[in-house]
Amino acid sequence: MEQYEKVEKIGEGTYGVVYKARDRATNETIALKKIRLEQEDEGVPSTAIREISLLKEMQHGNIVKLHDVVHSEKRIWLVFEYLDLDLKKFMDSCPEFAKSPALIKLADFGLARAFGIPVRTFTHEVVTLWYRAPEILLGARQYSTPVDVWSVGCIFAEMVNQKPLFPGDSEIDELFKIFRVLGTPNEQTWPGVSSLPDYKSAFPRWQAEDLATVVPNLEPLGLDLLSKMLRFEPNKRITARQALEHEYFKDMEMVQ
User: Where does ATP bind (predicted)?
Assistant: First the structure.
């Protein structure tokens, strides 16, 4: 670790601390993520293994670059490119964010998974609550990439509204916030929903609101895209590839 000089702490999470640092060899500013191993009886946390393996595979202009992995006693250091602006802070400070040409990069892949077979049995407790898809909230153990499209839809609306779309403080509150906007699902709007483990026939019956009143500053093409990202039925939700090909993005240059 002699190659890297810590400058300041810029974040802290469940498994470690992130520092702004300098690479002494190149004088480049980098980010150091320290993963604690002191409390781990079974070695390196699975979240760290996932993050390292996925980032080593993925090379894309919108994904943070992992430069190096350094293992020392009782800790692992991940060396990332340094991103000088946090998305949420930028959204809070820049009302014109949705129109900004700023380059967005994905980071923190601790809960990410590689996928091959589209549907597998996973844990119930994934995805930050405000961006959690309804099938997960209702207890589905089999889910796939549509849950990510739902999350992106929530972030899309948040970028436009400058506030979270479904800021629930518990799983049931999150569900009810979704239902108040999109309507309470039933077998007609979401075939099979009543068979999900946490679905209750006693749920309050809300009618769907017009998305144009929920996200009033979004143009019609954007509202069309958002509505397709926030479909209840996962198999009917727009895919990531289809979303990129949507008319809303027709005049935008994509990063390769």
Answer: 33
Phi, psi of 160 (to 5 degrees): -80, -45
Instruction: Yes or no: say if 101 and 113 are a contact pair by the CB < 8 Å rule.
Output: no
- 250 marked as binding residue: no
Structural domain count, the chain: 2
Q: What is the pTM of this model?
A: 0.66
User: Coil, strand, or helix at residue 75?
Assistant: strand
Structural domain contains residue 101 = no
CB contact set of 241 (below 8 Å; sequence gap of 6+)? none
What whole-number distance in Å separates Cα of residue 121 and Cα of residue 143? Answer: 7
Q: How many Å apart are CA 31 and CA 8, to the nearest integer?
A: 10
Taking the C-alpha atoms of residue 104 and residue 63, their distance in angstroms, rounded to an integer, is 8
Same domain, 51 and 142: no
Bridge partners, residue 106, by sequence: 63
